[in-house]
Amino acid sequence: MFKKKVRLAKRFIEISKTLSQLGFYNVYDYFKALLGLEIDEKAQPKRIREALEKLGPSFIKLGQVLSTRPDIVPQSVVQELIKLQDKVAPIDFDIIEEILKRNYGDKLWEIFAYIDPKPLASASISQVHVGYLQTGEKVAVKVRRPNLKEMIELDAELMLTIIDFLEKHFKTVKEFNLKGVIYQFKRTTLNEADFEIEAQNIKIFRENFKDYPDFYVPKCFEEISTSEVLITEFIEGIKISDIKKLKEKNYNLKLLAEKLTDAYFKMVFKDGVYHADPHPGNLFVLEDGTICAVDYGMVGFLSKTKKRYFFDYIVAVTTLDINLALQFYEGFNMFTPYTDFNNFETDLQFFLEKYHNKKLEEIDLKEMILDIIEFVRTNKLRLPTDVAYLGKAAINLEGTVRELYPSFNPTQRLRKFVTTSTKDYIIEKLGEVRDSAELAFYAIFKLENAYRLLIRERITFQIVFKDLEELQLFYKNQIHKIVYALLFIGLFLSIPLFKIAKMDTLADLSLFLSFVVGIFTLYKVLRH
After folding, report:
1. Quick check: is 240 in a domain?
2. Which of 43, 93, 236, 508 could form a disulfide with 117 if both were Cys (CB 3.0 to 4.6 A apart)?
3. Quick check: is 92 catalytic?
4. Helix, strand, coil % in the chain, rounded to nearest 5
């Protein structure tokens, strides 16, 4: 326990030094700027992003998680965090080789003919090297950074300590549920660092796109991959952001934008499994014009029910159906105790009316998502992880296709997927009617059973008050004040008694302690 506290203190000092070099002289001030708790004109969103990049792997990943939480972070900061460059200083190849030997032992050079010591890419989670198998196949060797899990655990603990401090001194901080964000960051980062999970993700995507000609998923060599090392097919292609080279090779840029958008909408509206990080560095164009995505560590999943909620929301916008739109927010459990329903309904009506008269091809996807972000933040809604990741991925996608072909609008392609889903939508709605009929039929028996249970067992209902936690904290503070006041009085009254008994040393000690306790009691009273 003591060693852990020492490590936390060292890490805190290290972070403080880094932030001070960037003009943030206090860790707490930095977090206040990040969360928009205090407006500081000097703390521009760009400087906040640069600080996260400078602080290293854990904080880059935290920034990526926060970029999906517009319910917590101001919109201006969110748009900057989306640009986070996941690039860090490369690790020496001797360390990489040690990790490879730990995973493969004596079989290392029986599996590989050669691994290039120069890294192809170095990110917060891993480092990638070009390799050749003994069979002659060219592969990408993705190696997890050393001691990554320990660093994530340590930084998560430090962040929780900082949040504890902020919650004590800023009432609004508790409303954000920042501890939930840190647990989310820890869970998602550790999952992303487990390459056995990524290997399974690749397997799912290869199955979903096996008969799809315009999108390619690289092969994963599962038999020689581990939780620490991932071996995939090496992709020879042009980065989708290299517009100059694509033009030189005479690729149809509009067609590429359409292919990428169609593949992404297929993931979301048909498969329910989508690549959650479609930034230009992860996308390549192959020789035949096929789009290829790499890095399947960050993947989002949408159940059949959640896909239906998204489809319902699109229908709600096109039909101006506020009740159908409400089902989306209820279905994703987005309401919080701080949501004002009168304002919510007014804002929702305004949002629906803004987009109601527009054709799909006239809707700017990025503008619409940013409007939703503002809507979520204004109405103090809770943003579920799957919705947040989808929003971030959609903004990345929109940015990528706009760079590829500036006049292209991704929503032009949405109609293709919405119309093909109508049949399934009707079938699902008929299924809902059937389920409702069954529920109504069995409800009589369920109610009778519940009534008998109430009579027989005499069930006690508990009422949970919304402000109970604040009430408990209030009484706790009052009790503390009373205890300190009694202690002060006791010490103060003991001084003359000790003097009468000619115990001068104890009298002086009581005087000193009563003075200290008195000052502390006064501080407590004035503070609250």
Report:
1. no
2. 93
3. no
4. 65, 10, 25
Domain end marker among 160, 192, 224: 192
The catalytically annotated residue of 71, 86, 155, 277 is 277
Collect contacts of 190-193 with beta carbons under 8 A, ≥24 apart. Answer: 190/149, 190/152, 191/297, 192/61, 192/125, 192/297, 192/298, 193/125, 193/126, 193/144, 193/148, 193/149, 193/152, 193/297
> What is the SS3 assignment for 417-431?
HHHHCHHHHHHHHHH
pLDDT at 392: 79
Instruction: Tell me whether residue 297 is exposed, middle or buried, using C-beta atoms within 10 angstroms of its C-beta: 0 to 12, 13 to 18, 19 or more.
Output: buried
Q: What is the pTM of this model?
A: 0.73
In a domain, 321, yes or no: no
pLDDT single digits (tens) 197-247: 999 999 999 999 999 999 999 999 999 999 999 999 999 999 998 999 999
For 439-498, what is each residue's pLDDT tens digit? Answer: 555 555 555 565 555 554 444 444 444 455 566 666 667 777 777 777 778 877 878 777
Q: Is position 373 within any domain?
A: no
How far apart CA 329 and CA 331 sit, in angstroms, is: 6
Which domain, by its residues, includes 76? Answer: 2-86+150-192
Residue-wise pLDDT for 101-155, tens only, equals: 999 999 999 999 999 999 998 888 899 999 999 999 999 999 999 988 888 888 8
> When comparing pLDDT for 501 and 60, which is higher?
60
* Number of compact structural domains in the chain: 2
Torsion of CA 149, 150, 152, 155, to 10 degrees: 180
Domain-ending residue, one of 192, 225, 251: 192
Which residues are CB-contacts of 389 (< 8 A; sequence separation ≥ 6)?
68, 276, 298, 300
Domain assignment of residue 169, yes or no: yes
